[in-house]
Specification:
The protein is 45% helix and 15% strand. Helix 11 runs antiparallel to helix 12. An 8-stranded parallel beta barrel has the order 3-4-5-6-7-8-10-11, surrounded by 8 helices. The radius of gyration is 20 Å and the shape is globular. With 350 residues, the protein is α/β, with parallel strands linked by helices. The protein has 13 helices and 13 strands. The longest helix has 23 residues. It has 2 domains: 230 residues, Alpha-Beta Barrel (TIM Barrel), CATH 3.20.20.70; 77 residues, no CATH class. The chain binds flavin mononucleotide.
Length: 350
């Protein structure tokens, strides 16, 4: 057994690989959430022994840089910067984080290009990439990713179409021995964390549960909607026609979800009449989400704003401190290991 700041635990050794990779105590990642993952939340997570990502979102590079500085003033722990490859300022953000030699860069949104991964690695960064299908994981590993975040469609925010249950078998089982694979999407308990670690994951990434922390700046209305929501209320948006490919977004059912449907219909008409191009329409869609998320997270307008949430919202009923949340996850993972050991009549030795 190994000891950690939250007590004795049997998951200690299973967490070692991910913890060493991320240079933290617990390979529990608080995923980047645009507008939400700002210096206070990120530093609180790092100061509690876990790992967090500062969300680059749509920020101009100088603002992102000042957020990096602010986070560094609040924690000595390492944290990642999450860059959305389809954000307007993405290239300049990447230049800035590389010039600062930031230690961990996570590429999100769409896939990064080979030269962008090369650039990050040349600057000394460890690179993590999202994979929502097996072929994306394949490609990211070929491009040189140091680790993969497998994200199932249960997750909140922009999502792929394949559930974590299938991706565990397609990505974790295939690549888990080769490089660290972190599992995201639908994880809401330490008990589940213990099982994915047993399956070979290096760690887990959660977003939805971290929204329900005191340190998270999301408006009280946003958190109240999370508290009252069931797993089935976190629905994903459809794509109406392949002439306007849109990334699905999982959020709590409200007027913003309906408004997005109307936006798609209008843009489809404009594309077919030649009034706009597919690229401009896609940009308008992304602007819609960033604006709608801000409306809900910052202004508290949970009717017209986008309340992005994963299905794990059904497991996020209580607002806790970040420290309490991490302690709960670690303790529950540890109890699950004890339970399994007693069922199997076997003492795990790691
Ligand atoms: C409100 C919200 C905003 C998000 N924004 C981003 C983002 O900007 N970049 C990103 O890579 N992932 C984003 N995500 C995904 C999370 O980082 C994380 O992978 C996901 O929430 C994990 O699944 P879970 O919601 O079941 O915990 C967002 C998720 C939520 C709930």
């Amino acid at each position: 057994m190994s000891e950690n700041r939250y007590g004795m635990t049997k998951v200690g050794d299973l967490m070692k690989r991910g913890a060493e990779f991320l240079s933290c105590e617990y390979p529990i990642i608080c995923g980047a959430m645009t507008w939400v993952s700002e210096p206070r939340l990120v530093s609180s997570v790092c100061n509690s022994g876990a790992f967090a990502c500062l969300a680059g979102g749509n920020m101009p590079p100088d603002l992102l840089e000042s957020q990096i500085n602010e986070t560094q003033s609040l924690t000595n722990g390492p944290f990642a910067v999450n860059l959305i490859t389809i954000a307007p300022a993405y290239k300049k953000q990447l230049d800035m984080v590389c010039s600062r030699k930031h230690p961990i860069i996570i590429f999100a949104g769409s896939f990064p290009r080979q030269n962008e991964i090369d650039k990050a690695k040349k600057a000394g960064a460890k690179v993590l990439c999202f994979a929502s299908t097996r072929s994306i994981a394949d490609r990211m590993i070929r491009y040189g990713a140091d680790g993969i975040i497998l994200e199932g469609s249960e997750a909140g925010g922009h999502i792929g179409h394949v559930s974590a249950m299938v991706l565990l078998q397609q990505i974790l089982f295939k690549f888990g021995d080769k490089l660290p694979v972190f599992v995201a999407g639908g994880i809401g308990t330490g008990r589940m964390m213990a099982h994915v670690l047993l399956m070979g994951a290096a760690g887990v990434q959660l977003g939805t549960r971290f929204v329900m922390t005191h340190e998270c700046i999301a408006h009280p209305n946003f958190k109240l909607m999370f508290k009252n929501a069931q797993a089935r209320d976190a629905v994903s948006t459809p794509q109406y026609d392949s002439s306007l490919p849109v990334v699905a977004v999982r959020a709590l059912r409200n007027d913003a979800q309906k408004e997005f449907g109307q936006l798609q219909l209008r843009l489809l008409k404009e594309i077919s009449s030649g009034k706009t191009t597919r690229e401009n329409a896609q940009e308008e869609v992304e602007k819609f989400w960033i604006g709608a998320l801000k409306k809900a997270v910052i202004d508290g307008d949970i009717k017209k704003g986008s309340v992005m949430a994963g299905q794990s919202v059904g497991l996020a009923d209580e607002i806790k401190s970040v420290k309490e949340l991490i302690a709960e996850l670690v303790a529950d993972a540890s109890s699950e290991m004890e339970r399994l050991a007693s069922i199997l009549g076997y003492s795990f030795s790691f």
